Amino acid sequence: MSSRDTVFASVRRALGVTSQEAPRRQEVADRIAGHPRGVIPARADLPPAERLALFKDMVMAAAGTVDHLPDTSGVPAAIAAYLRARNLPMSILRGQDPRLGDLPWHLQPTLDVWVGPSNGKQLAGLSHAFAGVAESGTLVMLSGPDNPSTLNLLPDYHLVVVRAEDVTGNYETVWERIRAVYGPGTMPRTVNWITGPSRSADIEQTLLLGAHGPRSVHVLLVGEVA
Amino acid sequence: MSVHITSPDFKDNAKKALSDAPLQQALSKVGPGFIGRRSAAAGLLPEFDALRDSARDIKNHMLAHLDLYLERYEAKVKEAGGHVHFAVDAAEARDIVTRICKDLGAKTVTKGKSMVSEEIGLNDHLEANGITPVETDLGEYLIQIRGEAPSHIIAPAIHLNKDQVEADFRRVHTHLPAERNISEPTALLAEARGELRERFLQADVGITGANFLVAETGTSIIVTNEGNGDLTQTLPKAHIVLASLEKLVPTLEDVSQLLRVLARSATGQEMSVYTTFSTGPRRAADVDGPGEYHVVILDNGRSGMLAGQLREMLRCIRCGACMNHCPVYHAVGGHAYGWVYPGPMGAVLTPSIIGIEKGANLPNASTFCGRCEEVCPVRIPLPKLMRHWREKEFERHLTPAPQRYGLAFWSFFARRGWLYRPATRLAMWGLSLVGRGKGRISSLPLAGGWTRHRDFPVPEGSTFQAQWKARKAAEADRAGGRA
C-alpha cells in the first residue's frame, strides 16, 4: 500500500467513513461551489469615498505611505518626486503591464524606466495592484509577466499603483473579482497580499522595518470613486 | 536544531530555566508585549469573537470531511502542474524532501519558518546528505547558528537578548570587519538582511511550511512579516511546501475568516505584512517563480487524533496566543518543554505525536488557569485536553509513585464526606497556625518545590464546602422570604 493510501485509510478509519457517502460528497461540493462568506467586519462597509479614505488610513497605519492622484497622467511625476525626495537614483523597474507602459513617461526624461523581473539589484520597483482592501490597507498583487512577483519583494522601495475603483471593502470581494478573471477554482501562480513594508520583531520584540522585503511601500492611488 | 527529546526531563529543564538569569530577563517581556497587543487588536474589531466562532466551525467542518478535502486539494495541485507527496511519518517526509533536492542537484536550500520542518528534524537530515539548509526567518536564522531548537512557535528566538545575538553574529560572520558597531537591533537586522540576500538569490530550492492549504484551488499559503518565506518560494528553481494534514481549509472565503483571527491573536497586527498564496509552478508566460512545485503532506500521528476528543487540537492554527498567555510558559520558556511545540498547545500536541510515555510531564505543566482557552482563536479547550492526557497518564501508571500515593490519600478522604469535612477544617487550622499573622508560609514540609520559589498563601475564612453550604442556605432563605 502506498503512503498516500495509508494516510487516506487512516483518516477514513478515524472518521468512520468510506469517502463514498453521497451526502458528505454533496456537502463538500456545495461548499466549494458556493464558497459562503462568513463574518464580514462592518468596518469597511462604507460609501465609496469613505472606503477610499479608510484604505489610505489603514495603509498608513501599517507604516506605508500614500499619494492620491487625480488621474494616471501624474504617476511618472509622482514617482520622480518620490525618488528625488529620498535621494535615490532616478531609475525604476516595472513589469510589462500595459497600464504602466502607457503612462506618459516622456514627461520625466531624467527617469530611467526598466522592464522585467527583479534580480535584487534595483533599489526601486513599480507594480500595478489588482486590488486594494480597505479593511486592513492590504494590496493584492497577482503574478505574471505584467507584474512579476520578484518586484514585490526584492527592491528596497516598492511603489504600487492602485486604481480607486479597485479598492474593495473586504477580501471576499477580491476573491470574486479573481474568479471573474481566472474562472472558479483557479488562481494565478502567486497572489501576494502586502500590508505595509517588511518588518521583524525577532530581536527582543523590538519592531523594526526592512527585514528581507522592501523597507518602504508607497501607494500611488489614482482617481476618485463616485 | 535537533529533534532530541527532553520532555521527560521537564522538571529538571524547568528548574534550570528558573535560575537562568538571561532567559528570565528575556521571558519577562513575553507577557507584557504579546498580551497587550492581542487585546488591543481584538478590541478594535467588534466582530472578533464572532470570527473566532466562525474559525472554529470552519475547522470542525474541514476535519469532519478531511478525506474529501484532501482528495480535492490533491487534484487541484496536480491540475496546476504541482506534485503532492504523502508522508506517514517524519522519516518518510525527510526522505521525500531530500530526494526532490537531490534530483534537482541542489546544494543549498533556503527555508521559510516551518514548525513541521522542526518536527521532522529536516535540517540535520539535509546536512547529512550534503545539502546546506539556510534558515531565513531572522529568529530561525539565530537559532540555527546557535544550534538550538525554537523556543516559541512564532518567535523562535524569544529566549535571546541582543547581546547574545551580537556575540553570535561576531562569531559566525567573520568575513565582516571586527570593529563594526552592531550593538543595536537595527544594525543586527541590517547585517542579517545583507548576509541572507545573497543566499536567497543563490539557493537551488526553497522550502516553506504552510499556514493553510486551500482545497478549492490547490493553493498553499504562508504568512510572514519579514518577506523571507515569500522570497524563499519565489526565487529558487523549486518550491517545496511542508504541511501537516490539518492545514486544509475548504475555500478562499474560509481562509479569509481564519486570516482575520490569526495575526490579531499572534502579534496583535490587523494583518501580517505578507500573505502569499501559491498555486503550482511558474506558468508559461511567467518571468519569475519556481519551475517545480511540490507539497509534502505529513500525517505523523494526526489521522489517529481525528478519532477521539483530541480532534479538537487539530483546529490549531499555530498563532502562539496560548503560550503568550501562559503563566507556566512565562516562567520557564519554551525549551523546558523539551521538543518543538511548547506551551499549552505543545502540552496537548506533543504527547499525541511522541507518545504519552515521553510527554507525560507536559500536560501536568499547567495551573489550569484557563487563559489559553480564553484566547484561543479556534476555541480549543486546552485545559480539557490536558486533563485528558493526565487521565491517560494515570491509567497507564506513568504517574510517579509519590503523586499516586498523594492522590490515593486525598481520594480516601474525598470519597468519605464525613471524614473529608473535618479533615479539611483541621488542615486549614494547622496551616493558619504555621503562617500566623503573616498571611503566608515561606517553608512547608512536603511542599518545598512550591515554597522555594514563592510563598504558600495561608487559607482564609472557612472551607469551600462550608462556604457553599452557607451560600445555599442564604439563597434558600431569600427564596423563602420572597414566597
Model description:
- The complex is a heterodimer of chains A (226) and B (483).
- Chain A is built from 7 helices and 12 strands.
- With 226 residues, chain A is α/β, with parallel strands linked by helices.
- A 6-stranded parallel β-sheet of chain A has the order 1-12-7-4-2-3, with helices on both faces.
- In chain A, helix 5 links the parallel strand 2 and strand 3 (112-115).
- The model of chain A has no long low-confidence stretch (mean pLDDT 97).
- With 483 residues, chain B is of the alpha/beta class.
- Chain B contains 25 helices and 12 strands.
- A 6-stranded parallel β-sheet of chain B has the order 1-10-7-4-2-3, sandwiched between helices.
- The model of chain B has no long low-confidence stretch (mean pLDDT 93).
- At the A-B interface, helix 1, helix 2, helix 6, helix 7 and strand 9 of A face helix 4, helix 5, strand 1, helix 9 and helix 11 of B.
Task: Give short descriptive properties of this protein.
heterodimer, A: 226 residues, alpha/beta, 6-stranded parallel beta sheet, 4-stranded mixed beta sheet, B: 483 residues, 25 helices
Computed structural class of chain A: alpha/beta
Radius of gyration of chain B: 25 Å
Task: Assign a percent range to the helix content of chain A.
Answer: 25-40%
Radius of gyration of chain A: 21 Å
Unreliable sequence segments of chain B: none
Largest interface: A-B, 82 and 103 residues
How would you characterize the largest beta sheet of chain A?
Answer: 6 strands, parallel
Shape of chain B: globular
Could you write a compact summary of the structure shown?
The complex is a heterodimer of chains A (226) and B (483). Chain A has 226 residues and is α/β, with parallel strands linked by helices.
